[in-house]
Structure formats: C-alpha cells, structure tokens
Specification:
The protein is α+β, with helices and mostly antiparallel strands. It has two domains: 85 residues, Roll (Ubiquitin-like (UB roll)); 70 residues, DNA polymerase, domain 1, CATH 1.10.150.120. The chain has six helices and five strands; from the N terminus they run E-E-H-E-E-H-E-H-H-H-H. It has a five-stranded mixed sheet with strand order 2-1-5-3-4, sandwiched between helices. Helix 4 crosses helix 5. It is globular. It starts with 12 loop residues before the first strand and ends with a helix.
Length: 168
C-alpha cells in the first residue's frame, strides 16, 4: 500500500515516463500507483482518484493504447510504456469524443468524466462502429454516480458517426 507521507521511508527509484508524448523524469517508490505519479509528481490532475482498487474507472488512462486503471498499476510497471491521460487527447478539448460528450450534455458532477472518455476513446479505436452491447461491455467498469449512462452511450455513437464522417 502506498502512503504518501511515508515517501522518504521507501526505497526510491528514478523513472523516465512517456506521458502524452513527453518524457518526465520522476523519483518514486516502485510500488507507487501510476495515478499518484501522474497527479502529484507530473502535475497532470485530469485523471481522478475514485476508489483505489480499480473498480470505478475514474483513474482510467491509456497504456500503449489500452485502457488501464492507473490506481492499481505500480509506476515500475509503466516505465517503458506510452501513457496517455485525458490531457493528452487534445490541448483544447477538440477530440471527437470530448466534443460529443459536451454536445450530448453527458457531464453532471463531472468527476468520472475523464475515465469515461478515456474508455470511450479506447473502444472507438478498437471498434469504430460499436453496437450498444459493445458500448455497454467496454464501459461496464466505469461508474457514473449521476447515472448518465444513456447520454454516455449517445455520445459514443455520435463520436463514432462524426469520426467516420470526418466531420470533427
């Protein structure tokens, strides 16, 4: 278990992380969850802490293009991988999924949104024209406490159409 205030009591190691196509050099305990390195060491706070046990999806980022729960991946396991956070999708929220999210008025409290969007992007990268069942399956690990699941599904379909039509 990673406990931030015990940082100096741990064995520290240096890592070069590829995050959003930039290299960051960090020093951390090898077992520190990637989430805390992204947020506290690198300063990218779009990725959220939700549960700490990889069950809610709020901390979802891409590792080598695949969605992973950054709260459960130790930094040592991420050091040779390409990591993309919500900040890495676009500098101005112009990614088709981000635009579709706004157009479908998905966010309410917004806390789960970065994880939801990262899972949706990974789905569309794998399956550009997903069915409702594909969406439900891919998004099953992302909890929205506000219950905007129907809007999430609509936004994914809209983004899929926009991407295939080249309109965004």
């Amino acid at each position: 278990m990673y406990i931030p205030y015990l940082k100096n009591a741990s064995i520290m190691a240096k890592y070069k992380l590829q995050i959003n196509q930039q290299t960051y050099e960090v020093e951390a305990d090898p077992q520190t969850p990637l989430l805390w390195v992204i947020r506290d060491e690198v300063g990218l706070t779009g990725t959220k802490y939700g549960c700490g046990i990889a069950q809610c999806g709020a901390c979802t980022v891409h590792m080598n293009g695949n969605p992973i729960r950054s709260c459960s991946i130790p930094v040592a396991a991420a050091s040779t991988k390409k990591i993309t956070t919500i900040e890495g999708l676009s500098e101005d929220q112009s990614h088709p999924v981000q635009k579709a999210w706004v157009d479908a008025q998905v966010p309410q409290c917004g806390y789960c949104q970065s994880g939801q969007i990262m899972s949706a992007v990974a789905l569309l990268n794998r399956k550009p024209k997903p069915s409702d069942d594909d969406i439900d399956s891919a998004m099953a690990g992302n909890i929205c406490r506000c219950g905007t699941y129907t809007r999430i599904r609509k936004a994914i379909h809209n983004a899929s159409n926009d991407i295939s039509n080249g309109s965004r």
